[in-house]
Amino acid sequence: MCLAIPVKVIEVGADDTAIVDLGGVKKEISLALLADVQVGDYVILHVGYALTRLDPEEAEKTLALFAELNQTGLAAA
Fold first, then answer.
1. Do 45 and 51 form a contact (C-beta atoms < 8 A)?
2. Cβ atoms of 51 and 32 closer than 8 Å
């Protein structure tokens, strides 16, 4: 099984890289597959690569669902 998750870009770096916020964890990712990503954008992250931009409202809904699953303990099942 593979998992792609929405993350928020908090810093755009050199060489097609960015720093994203992954539930409070900061992670460097590759933007090599996307153009014109800006701070504040949400992207779908898979195996360290941003695959596509995501509508901010949809990203927030998905992140809220993940947080709810985590609180109920269903995410570990």
1. yes
2. no
Which tens digits make up the pLDDT trace of 37-51? 999 999 999 999 999
Paired sense of beta strands 42-46 and 25-30, if any: unpaired
**Is this model's pTM higher than 0.70 or not?**
yes
How far apart (Å, rounded) are the C-alpha atoms in residues 2 and 13? 26
Q: What is the DSSP string of 9-77?
A: EEEE-SSSEEEEEETTEEEEEE-TT-SS--TT-EEEEETTEEEEEE-HHHHHHHHHHHHHHHHHTGGG-
Cα distance between the two ends of the chain: 14
Structure tokens at 74: 């269903």
